[in-house]
């Protein structure tokens, strides 16, 4: 993987790919990250100008999570789908982040059997995976707090998702995801 830090990124027009620019693109054309596969390498470009320093980590980990979510192995997908189906069966309210919240709302509104594997379900589950993996990766780097609010899922369900990800992608030695892992070190 190659990582490119750029002042700004501009969304491609369909004929051409996204591009790096030194001048701020219009709001509708500006993007925060772009991914391109070149031969046997994935290049991840991140726009950093006008970005709060505190947001660097989130943007980076979200971009990594998106790359992984676009290529997640079947066994990881199936394990995460089971977790999502259990949450949907229990009518768990809330989500990890805005993108998955909106997709979950669309799924619940438009589909009577929310656990059935449809395009709506797969889109929601993939985004929920990406959002949860972003939190997981960010949590291995920094001591972060999850902001509570009306759209936030209950902590016991969030913890369960993080435990699933810890089993699938164990953190490196010396790194912790959950508070009790810090105490035992």
**What level of helicity do the residues show?**
40-55%
Number of domains: 2
Averaged pLDDT: 89
Q: End-to-end distance, in Å?
A: 31 Å
Q: What's the helix-strand series?
A: EEEEEEHHHHHH
How large is the radius of gyration?
Answer: 18 Å
**Number of helix segments?**
6
With strands numbered from the N-terminus, the spatial order across the biggest sheet is 1-6-5
General description of the model:
By secondary structure, the protein is of the alpha+beta class. The protein has two domains: 2-51, no CATH class; 74-183, no CATH class. It is built from six helices and six strands; from the N terminus they run E-E-E-E-E-E-H-H-H-H-H-H. It has helices at residues 53-69, 74-89, 98-110, 119-141, 155-168, 179-183; strands at residues 2-6, 8-10, 19-21, 30-31, 33-38, 41-47. The strands form two sheets. A three-stranded mixed sheet has the order 1-6-5, with helices on one face. Strands 3-2-4 form a three-stranded antiparallel sheet, with no helix packed on it. The longest helix is centred in the last third of the chain and has 23 residues, at 119-141. The protein is globular, with a radius of gyration of 18 Å. The model has no long low-confidence stretch (mean pLDDT 89).
């Amino acid at each position: 993987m190659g990582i490119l830090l750029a002042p700004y990124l501009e969304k491609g027009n369909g004929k051409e790919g996204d591009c790096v620019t030194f001048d701020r693109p219009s709001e509708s054309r500006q993007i925060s990250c772009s991914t391109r596969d070149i031969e046997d390498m994935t290049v991840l470009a991140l726009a950093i100008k006008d970005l709060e320093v505190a947001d660097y980590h989130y943007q980076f980990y979200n971009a990594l999570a998106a790359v992984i979510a676009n290529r997640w192995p079947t066994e990881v997908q199936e394990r995460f789908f089971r977790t999502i189906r259990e949450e949907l069966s229990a009518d768990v309210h809330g989500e990890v982040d805005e993108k998955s919240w909106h997709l979950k709302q669309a799924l619940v509104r438009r589909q009577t059997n929310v656990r059935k594997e449809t395009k709506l379900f797969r889109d929601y589950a993939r985004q929920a995976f990406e959002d949860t993996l972003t939190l997981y990766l960010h949590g291995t780097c920094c001591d972060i707090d999850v902001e509570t609010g009306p759209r936030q899922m209950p902590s016991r369900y969030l913890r369960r998702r993080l435990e699933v990800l810890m089993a699938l992608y164990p953190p490196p030695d010396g790194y912790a995801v959950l508070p009790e892992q810090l105490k035992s070190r």
